[in-house]
Amino acid sequence: MDKHSSFAVSNPHKVPLDSLQKLGLWMGIIGVGILAFATFNFHSEPKSVFVLVSIALILVGSIVYGRQSYIKQVPGIKNNHVWFKTLSNRGVWGWLLGIILTLFYILIYWFPQYLGLGMNGEENTGLVVMFDSISMFFKGQPASQWFVYGTLYTLAILSLGIKFMYKYRHNRYQLIRTVVVIISQLFLAYLIPEILEGLNTETPYFAKDIKNMWPLNYYFFESWHLDNMVNGGTLGMFYLVVGIFMFLVFTPIITYFVGKRWYCSWVCGCGGLAETAGDPFRHLSSKKLSAWKLERWLIHSIMVFIFIVTIAVLYGYFTGSGEFFGLSIYTYFSKPYGFLIGAMFSGVIGVGFYPMLGSRVWCRFGCPLAGYMGIIQRFKSRFRITTNGGQCISCGNCSTYCEQGIDVRAYAQKGENIVRASCVGCGICSAVCPRGVLKLENGPEKGRINPTDVLLGNDVDLMDLVNQK
């Protein structure tokens, strides 16, 4: 092998950035740089103007870079060389990004004063003060760390969602799904809750729950939350009734007809960030059987944990007691769950570890709502991914880019339906298949479970097969 061939292996078809890509990249870097310098109290004045300049640079820069990167290519999924890039193959840039994201989440959750949040009545400084003008516009009060987080979260989904759409522009399902994801985050999770909080300054807490439901919203039945909804007038009672209706009635019904994808891939903010900002890292999700076993044990254990926590919390609310079986409800139930699952797992690990573990760590291993809907999808749903084994060429694209760690190719080679509790129906496996082997469908329950699932021990009851005959 000559030196040119050797170079091609280590740097496969490396294409230099054109002028527009460089422009978009530098716009994004400058926008992020303004916020980064603000974190260390180096502000550009006036702050109210430069925060908008920063947001505009990040948004426009991402769009320019994304469009120029894909619009000049033939339509189709381009995941070329992801295993060679240092950012998407756990290289130096990947680890650096993971460390920055993890540090940011730790500061947001537990040390917001280092981001500039004013403590004990003090004025905001640093990064947080940059968003005071936007918060005052919506709510008439200075920004909190959560307002800053929500704004940046929404900006990431919006800007990188548009980039995602350029990349997947050949696939109608992905285009529609991404538009819905962006609208859900922008309006349901950000604008509407912030506006409602500004209009209901005395009882704002339930306004944040417009898109979440128990068990994902683990504090739904805590006393302070129930009190605010009960005392929140008509709007508060509306949210209480709707919240209970959503997980008891609506969720099981809609999951039966279309699977858990209606929420996990179309509405959920965690899923929205994973599908947009996390797209470059989806192939890092482990496909090992050991990971699948860990997934089932972990997510169902967390479901049991939140169920026990909820019983304890409701017991304390209706009895007026702070103890459950002699144990402090806050010390032994609510606080541990909020810290370990609500913050550490879903935030720090769930997003901070994108560049190391893939984009759906939280959704796959921890989210109790995903686990709840997964049980319904697995055993009582019309949703499945059908396969045409005769057309499969075993290229492995489907398995590689499944962010939930499902070995899709193994099912496709046998021509079997893919019916897994963890599948979020993102449709990327179908989009990257060069032969059209995979298809997302909602069909009759009969025949959706594969006979070999029993032999493989894939959590299928023998009665399922008997009932299908």
UniProtKB/TrEMBL annotation:
<feature type="transmembrane region" description="Helical">
    <location>
        <begin position="175"/>
        <end position="192"/>
    </location>
</feature>
<dbReference type="GO" id="GO:0051539">
    <property type="term" value="F:4 iron, 4 sulfur cluster binding"/>
</dbReference>
<keyword id="KW-0812">Transmembrane</keyword>
<dbReference type="InterPro" id="IPR051684">
    <property type="entry name" value="Electron_Trans/Redox"/>
</dbReference>
<dbReference type="Pfam" id="PF13187">
    <property type="entry name" value="Fer4_9"/>
</dbReference>
<feature type="transmembrane region" description="Helical">
    <location>
        <begin position="92"/>
        <end position="111"/>
    </location>
</feature>
<protein>
    <submittedName>
        <fullName>4Fe-4S binding protein</fullName>
    </submittedName>
</protein>
<keyword id="KW-0249">Electron transport</keyword>
<feature type="transmembrane region" description="Helical">
    <location>
        <begin position="23"/>
        <end position="42"/>
    </location>
</feature>
<dbReference type="GO" id="GO:0046872">
    <property type="term" value="F:metal ion binding"/>
</dbReference>
<keyword id="KW-0411">Iron-sulfur</keyword>
<feature type="transmembrane region" description="Helical">
    <location>
        <begin position="48"/>
        <end position="66"/>
    </location>
</feature>
<feature type="transmembrane region" description="Helical">
    <location>
        <begin position="297"/>
        <end position="317"/>
    </location>
</feature>
<feature type="domain" description="4Fe-4S ferredoxin-type">
    <location>
        <begin position="383"/>
        <end position="411"/>
    </location>
</feature>
<feature type="domain" description="4Fe-4S ferredoxin-type">
    <location>
        <begin position="414"/>
        <end position="443"/>
    </location>
</feature>
<feature type="transmembrane region" description="Helical">
    <location>
        <begin position="237"/>
        <end position="258"/>
    </location>
</feature>
<feature type="transmembrane region" description="Helical">
    <location>
        <begin position="146"/>
        <end position="166"/>
    </location>
</feature>
<keyword id="KW-0813">Transport</keyword>
<keyword id="KW-0472">Membrane</keyword>
<dbReference type="InterPro" id="IPR017900">
    <property type="entry name" value="4Fe4S_Fe_S_CS"/>
</dbReference>
<feature type="transmembrane region" description="Helical">
    <location>
        <begin position="337"/>
        <end position="357"/>
    </location>
</feature>
<keyword id="KW-0004">4Fe-4S</keyword>
<dbReference type="GO" id="GO:0005886">
    <property type="term" value="C:plasma membrane"/>
</dbReference>
<dbReference type="InterPro" id="IPR017896">
    <property type="entry name" value="4Fe4S_Fe-S-bd"/>
</dbReference>
<keyword id="KW-0408">Iron</keyword>
<dbReference type="Pfam" id="PF12801">
    <property type="entry name" value="Fer4_5"/>
</dbReference>
<keyword id="KW-1133">Transmembrane helix</keyword>
<keyword id="KW-0479">Metal-binding</keyword>
